[in-house]
Specification:
By secondary structure, the chain is α+β, with helices and mostly antiparallel strands. The protein has one domain. The chain is 20% helix and 30% strand. It has helices spanning 72-92, 103-107, 121-127; strands spanning 12-14, 25-34, 44-45, 50-52, 56-66, 95-96, 112-116, 138-148, 153-155. The protein has a six-stranded mixed β-sheet. The protein has a three-stranded antiparallel β-sheet with strand order 3-4-9, with no helix packed on it. The radius of gyration is 23 Å and the shape is elongated. This is DUF4255 domain-containing protein. Residues 20-160 form the Pvc16 N-terminal domain. It comes from Paenibacillus hexagrammi.
Length: 168
């Protein structure tokens, strides 16, 4: 996305769309929902004497907002270009895994999907109905599944021997 349509990578960031700042493109986390479709029920082995409860699985809902500093005559066109390019990048990289991930996502070799999640016109207007802020061109995306490890761990004993008898 840099240098065209956004001059520098630092001009893309996590922020509320109403925050005044230097961002041409802001990403705002507006909802976190449990992902029932991806819920896990199996305990996770942690060494030989412990098992951990399964992780919580969530989907993250982001609002992607274009904010051009251009003059009024060309601002709308500029914001369309910025958001259109962002949509291309997210579509082309809709599955994040391997070298595209960092931190615990990379360590656990997890895969995260990025999917456009259209919001109705009324829904979008309701989202922008705060602090007398004028509507800005935005798109909604769902990112997930994201696994949040449980802190609950249970001590167990492994089966060390078995005794099988057949009685007749």
């Amino acid at each position: 996305m840099t240098p065209d349509p956004i001059p520098q990578p630092e001009m893309i960031g996590l922020a509320s769309p109403v925050d005044k700042g230097d961002f041409y493109l802001s990403l705002f986390l507006y909802a976190i929902k449990e992902s029932g479709d991806n819920r896990r029920t199996q305990m996770v082995a942690r060494g030989t004497n412990e098992i951990q409860y399964p992780p919580m699985v969530v989907d993250l809902h982001y609002l992607l907002t274009a904010q051009s500093p251009a003059e009024l005559q060309s601002r709308a066109l500029d914001e369309h270009r910025i958001l259109g390019r962002a949509m291309q990048v997210l579509y082309d990289n809709s599955v994040l895994r391997g070298s595209l991930t960092v931190g615990t996502l990379a360590e656990k070799e997890e895969e995260v999907r990025v999917v456009m999640a259209p919001i109705s016109g009324d829904g979008m207007m309701n989202m922008w109905n705060f602090a007398d802020t004028p509507f800005r061109l935005s798109m909604s995306y769902t990112v997930g599944p994201v696994y949040i490890d449980s802190t609950r761990i249970k001590t167990t004993k492994r089966v060390l021997e078995r005794d099988i008898r057949i009685e007749g």
